């Protein structure tokens, strides 16, 4: 939402103007927000080792004129164990990645044209796709993006980003269409041989992703969506997650997702979610994925906002099958502070892994 002008402290004005000048954007500046989210989690493999993972995210939004907005977000990752504590293929933690002092998540400009938002710049798919209240609860990476996509494309997926044109069209109160066109290969920031501003269709290909969703806003609300991706390069992905260019060939994947409220009374709510995705173009990687889950909001107790969830999925790779189960409980301790224990049980040909996790997150947003 774009809001009107406000009067800001001079110190804050200087910060905003400095940032705008650095990016070359100096038109009329109105409303801004600065936000910080810190997420930390302790992971424990009941058979062996432990790990501590931290994610810090900064983001700012600067309104330009009546219908424009400059967007920026960065991520910073630190963990104590260089190696994962489990040999799982889907990655049980959606924040765990290699240590990264600085990663660029968003850098670009959004223009509002009636019911359309058009973004141009650096972005990643996690900002727009596979985002819903139910999937946001679970800590498994596959709830954030299906492995038929993340394991098969070198795309702009957390923690990487790529040059992008993103369109978000709100057709009416129920229907929404999203379409994104990305450079076919994502890059890291400040790494030799990498250029996050790269646009090279001839060498790196083009990645397309689109989604049509319908939202039902009745008492028993629901969200139903379907989408597909197209990449004009075929990449191979082995068990270690290493991707190599195999040939110049169209690579296609599709998915369906539903989220349905089964019970709602006052603040209590029970939701069902189901996911299915397939990619039949690849020779190495994830070919099919299925997931089912249930969330119970404020059912356990009502003194604090809380959601209990259970989720099971099956990912079929060309080199084997992985089944993953998660039980998690997110409790809002204070307005901006959440505590979330989770338990993961994972099975693939490498073995069976049982992992306990305790995650905490704190968010601070400052409207200027």
Structural account:
One of its GO terms (biological process) is carbohydrate transport. Belongs to the OprB family. It holds the Pfam family OprB. One of its GO terms (molecular function) is porin activity. This is Porin. With 368 residues, the protein is mainly beta. The chain has a single domain (10-367), classed as Porin. It is built from four helices and 18 strands. The chain has a 16-stranded antiparallel beta barrel. The chain has a two-stranded antiparallel ribbon with strand order 10-11. It is globular, with a radius of gyration of 21 Å. The two termini are 15 Å apart. The model is unreliable at 1-30 (pLDDT under 50).
Largest sheet: 16 strands, antiparallel, barrel
- What string gives the helices and strands in order? HEEEEEHHEEHEEEEEEEEEEE
Low-confidence stretches: 1-30
Straight-line N-to-C gap: 15 Å
- Rg, Å, rounded: 21 Å
Number of helices: 4
Question: What count of domains describes the coordinates?
Answer: 1
Report the CATH architecture: Beta Barrel
Q: Mind telling me the CATH class?
A: Mainly Beta
The SS-based structural class is mainly beta
Question: What spatial order of strands do you see in the largest sheet?
Answer: 1-2-3-4-5-6-7-8-9-12-13-14-15-16-17-18
Overall 3D shape:
globular
Q: Please bin the fraction of helical residues.
A: under 10%
CATH topology (level 3) name: Porin
Query: What would you give as the CATH superfamily?
Result: Carbohydrate-selective porin OprB
Family: Belongs to the OprB family.
GO molecular function: porin activity
Organism: Bacteroides nordii
GO biological process, one term: carbohydrate transport
């Amino acid at each position: 939402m774009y809001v009107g002008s406000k009067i800001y402290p001079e110190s804050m004005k200087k910060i905003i103007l400095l940032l705008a000048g650095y990016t070359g954007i100096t038109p009329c500046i109105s409303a801004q927000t600065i936000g910080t989210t810190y997420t930390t989690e302790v992971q424990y493999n009941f058979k062996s080792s432990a790990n501590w993972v931290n994610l810090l995210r900064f983001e700012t939004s600067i309104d330009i004129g009546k219908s424009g907005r400059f967007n920026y977000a960065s991520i910073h990752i630190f963990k104590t164990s260089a190696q994962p504590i489990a040999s799982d293929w889907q990655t049980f933690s959606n924040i765990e990645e290699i240590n990264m002092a600085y990663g660029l998540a968003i850098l670009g400009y959004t223009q509002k044209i009636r019911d359309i938002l058009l973004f141009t710049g650096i972005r990643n798919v996690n900002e727009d796709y596979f985002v819903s209240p139910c999937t946001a609860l679970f800590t498994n990476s596959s709830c954030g993006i299906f492995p038929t996509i993340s394991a098969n494309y070198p795309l702009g997926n957390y923690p990487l980003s790529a040059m992008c044109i993103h369109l978000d069209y709100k057709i009416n109160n129920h229907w929404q269409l999203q379409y994104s066109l990305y450079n076919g290969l994502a890059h890291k920031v400040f790494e030799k041989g990498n250029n996050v501003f790269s646009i090279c269709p001839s060498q790196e290909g083009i990645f397309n992703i689109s989604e049509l969703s319908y939202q039902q806003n009745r008492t028993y609300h629901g969200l139903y969506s379907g989408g597909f991706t197209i990449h004009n390069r075929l990449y191979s992905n082995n068990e270690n997650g290493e991707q190599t260019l195999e040939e110049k060939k169209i690579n296609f994947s599709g998915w369906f997702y539903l989220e349905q409220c089964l019970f709602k009374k006052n603040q209590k709510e029970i939701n069902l979610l189901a996911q299915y995705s397939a990619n039949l173009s690849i020779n190495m990687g994830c070919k099919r994925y299925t997931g089912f889950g249930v969330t119970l909001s404020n059912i356990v107790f009502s003194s604090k906002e809380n959601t209990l969830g259970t989720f099971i999925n099956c990912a079929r790779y060309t080199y084997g099958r992985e089944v993953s189960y998660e039980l998690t409980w997110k409790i809002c301790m204070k307005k901006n502070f959440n505590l979330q224990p989770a338990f993961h049980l994972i099975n693939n040909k490498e073995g069976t892994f049982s992992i306990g996790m305790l995650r905490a997150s704190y968010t601070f947003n400052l409207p200027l």
